[in-house]
Amino acid sequence: MADEGLRPVIVKKVNKTSGGHHGGAWKIAYADFVTAMMAFFLLMWLLGSTTKGDLQGIAEYFKTPLKVAMAGGSGSGDSSSVIQGGGRDLTRKVGQVTKSDLDPGPKRLYTSKSDTAAVQAEMARAELNRLKALKQKIEAAIDARPALKQFKNQLLLDITTEGLRIQIVDEQNRPMFALAKAELQPYTKDILFEIGRALNDVPNRISLSGHTDATPYASGEKGYSNWELSADRANASRRALIAGGMDEAKVLRVVGLSSAVLFDKADPFNPINRRISIIVMNKKAEESASKDGGSVEVTNEAQARQEVVGAAAQ
């Protein structure tokens, strides 16, 4: 009995675990099963909604994806597909997108060169008609006023490659400006007032240039010369046009050309070389003049000279 008191006491610990039939591990497995079934039914719905041709395109893509991506073709990028796009650009809705395709942008229109040329030609014709109508209006306005009609021979209007050119030239006994000054004669102001009101009828901008004859100042080119005089006269004409009602924003360029561009090249001292030239510029001339270093050409001098000679003979 004494030995029994020396026996070791053995304690058994039993770890109880919850789970089994009533645990939560089955929920994870069920969620995986539901996810797989959703993916399966979604795939079946997509296959059922896609046309036969699109299915062939999809199959072709997975067979040779690089070939379809580079060369294009009928496939999931077709507009009839429920999966829009295809290729590198998923926003495209028509056909596969190849690497060589260009993004037209939100406002870009594809037109042929012939269509563009036709539109430009039509715009040029419409602009030419506007300038011709303006020419007729100015001529009619001068004819309607007896006080201005007597100066008709000094007012030359013609259509050039730059637009409508209006030239007001001097005569021997009827100058536009005071001698060697930029002071406008009263009848010159009346002419410019009439022209200024008419110029608002067209959206075209204008260029003014002053011209003198070759008679030099006593001081030559070192002091105040024909260059300053021609520029001052061009600016005086600009002010008169604006005073007559022309929008001041229409003026694009005012230059003084001295005697560099003579009207009568045979006689540099002819009073007709003293003139103001107003060019109602067409779109091409306006774009050229707006560029840095652009120029406005002066053409058809021979034709204008013939008009003066013919008018003077009448």
Helicity level, as a percent range?
A: 40-55%
Can you tell me the residue ranges where pLDDT is under 50 for at least 5 consecutive residues?
75-101, 296-314
| Number of separate helices | 9
The number of E-state strands comes to 5
The backbone outline, from C-alpha atoms, is elongated
Kindly report the CATH topology of the largest domain: 60s Ribosomal Protein L30, Chain: A
What's the number of domains? 2
- Percentage of residues in strands: 5-15%
- The pLDDT mean sits at 76
Looking at the overall shape, the CATH architecture of the largest domain is 2-Layer Sandwich
Give the termini separation. 166 Å
Protein model, in words:
There is one protein chain. The chain is of the alpha+beta class. It folds into 2 domains: 29-98, no CATH class; 125-313, 60s Ribosomal Protein L30, Chain: A (2-Layer Sandwich). Helix content is 42%, strand content 10%. It has 9 helices and 5 strands, in the order αααααββαβαββαα. It has helices spanning 25-49, 52-63, 65-71, 113-144, 146-149, 186-199, 226-243, 283-290, 301-313; strands spanning 155-160, 163-169, 206-211, 251-256, 275-281. Strands 1-2-5-3-4 form a 5-stranded mixed sheet, with helices on both faces. α7 links the parallel β3 (206-211) and β4 (251-256). α2 crosses α3 (65-71), α4 (113-144) runs antiparallel to α6 (186-199) and α6 crosses α7.
What keyword list fits this structure?
60s Ribosomal Protein L30, Chain: A, five-stranded mixed sheet, 314 residues, alpha+beta, 9 helices, 10% strand, disordered C terminus, 5 strands, MotB-like_N_dom
